[in-house]
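User: Some background: our group keeps a shared notebook of sequences we're curious about, and every so often someone picks one and asks for a predicted structure to add to the entry. Today it's my turn. The entry only has the sequence so far, pasted here. Could you supply the structure so I can complete it?
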Amino acid sequence: MCYYEREHFDAYARIRREGLEQWNDLHAGDGGRGYDDFSNRVFLQRVLPDHPEGRPSVLEYGCGTGGAACFLVSRGYRVRGVDLVPDAIETARRFAAERGLSVRFQVEDICRWGEPGSSTTMSSTASACSRSSWTKIAQRSWTA
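Assistant: Of course. Here's the predicted structure to add to the notebook entry:
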């Protein structure tokens, strides 16, 4: 088990057990905004077009309970969300189903991508990407 895994497994078990909606709900002063009000929402609304032509694909690793993934699907993107924590993915699938959204959520560990037998070579995430990186992704999504 990697150094970060235990914290994530414990946190998402607590989210599920306590009926919370997202990671930020675990931290005083940062939670309680609701599932649809995740930390990068305002930025993504500003830089990514609503219902872009060609329905671009997005990979969100570390998707947690899926707030950003569901938001992007609702705006016309195809999304694959991955997280290493089964509780997170189960919760994300439930939230997507409650909203009538089709998101491909999978339990995967991105730290193992690139190992023999892995087919994934590149990815980005809403929570780990800088805003300039997202701007570049956004520009490619409507110029490609």
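Suggested note for the entry: Confidence is low (pLDDT under 50) at residues 118-144. The CA atoms of residues 73 and 109 lie 22 Å apart.
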